[in-house]
Amino acid sequence: xxxxxxxxxSRLLKVVAEGDRRAFEVLYARHAPWLVLRLTRRCADxxxxxxxxxxxxxxxxxxxxxxxxxxxxxxxxxxIGIRRLLDQLRGRSPAIIKDHEDVVVSAEEQVLxxxxxxxxxxxxxxxxxxxxxxxxxxxxxxxxxxxxxxLLGIPTGTVKTRMMRARGLLREELA
Amino acid sequence: xxxxWHIDEDLSRDYTQGRIDAVLASSVEAHLLVCAxxxxxxxxxxxxxxxxxxxxxxxxxxxxxxxxxxxxxLCHMGxxxxxxxxxxxxxxxxxxxxxxxxxxxxxxxxxxxxxTRFGMLVFLAVAPTVPVAGVVMAFGRADPAHELALAxxxxxxxxxxxxxxxxxxxCVALALVTGLALLNDRGALAAWLLPALALTSLTLALxxxxxxxxxxxxxxxxxxxGVAGTALQSGDSALFGSAVQLLSLAVAAAxxxxxxxxxxxxx
Lengths: 175, 267
Prior knowledge:
The structure holds two protein chains of two kinds. Chain A is mainly alpha-helical. Helix content of chain A is 67%, strand content 0%. In chain A, helix 3 packs across helix 4 (73-90) and helix 6 (119-126) crosses helix 9 (156-174). Chain B is 72% helix and 0% strand. Chain A binds chain B through residues 9, 25, 28-34, 36-38, 40-41, 46, 50, 53-54, 57-58, 61-62, 72, 74-75, 78, 105, 109-110, 112-116, 121, 124-125, 129, 132-133, 136, 140, and chain B through 1, 3-5, 15-16, 18, 21-27, 29-34, 36, 39-40, 42-43, 45-46, 50-51, 53-55, 57-58, 61-62.
């Protein structure tokens, strides 16, 4: 059964839902490394990141049947991963997350693909670190204002006002 | 979805070492979500040992038996996980045992309707033995995990007390519910509580000398014959008057003291 390696992510996830341990292992080998790296950029504590990655793949194993086959498996895993990291940071037992199935590559992310030297990139770089962090958490990490506030340790209202200011500044820059 | 650019070696190194600015990092991350090849190129950046360790933990969680409903309920109520597990596997906290206890109590309560004199006595005599039976089943040889409990670096007294408290709580709740629903005499509802406490604590105390099953059987036998003897002689439920209540309290207190003194003798 070594042909699992050549399967696509969505095919692997479908058989993981049926309890295929080998497919789960391949999925882990493919997705754990980038997830570790990406979560490390949000949380410097390796122990917390490891716990979040562990929770994420336990959730993948248990909720694989809920994946509807739309979008990238990686984006689905990221949606779970960033929320498990939040759960870890909050120090509470993981809440049941319903909405991570909807996390797909957003229009904003598609725009960001390959714009790093473009106008938007320059404009983003001109934002203050506080505003950029909010843009990153809400637009790129796909978090709600409330979740972003928890990740960044600021109130939800502040996330919203910073996002509005960031939007206004970006509009000016790009006009 | 294919894109024009991919993450080259320099960018990959800078990203994994956290040396690029937020915008470039965001581009990398957005790209990673859609490009399997670039995800693959990052694999060497995370130490194999770390990934293996996390994988082992995942397997351990995934393979762990699912907690029983009771265990989940207890965890929800703020009981610590290992205590919830100890309680969850108690034989006399299984649904079958609880149902059997409820049935025994139900018959005892129904008996009170049959005759005016002895009926109530049946309930008052049987009700205290139900928690005793539950407690002797909760530890000692009746527990399927008895050998494990002996070998585990965990106090047997502690285990016995935690389980006895839970069993007592369940039995009292059961008896109160059946009593409230079916008994006319509200006084009888409470009259058996102190004798029940006395019998269970005495059983626990004697378990430091004897096998709990024998201790429980002996105590229950003595109790039932005592009640029957008194009832035949005096013919009423004088046994549940204030003198017996006080005596029960004294027995419970003395047993607790014995349990405390002999806490090292349990095995």
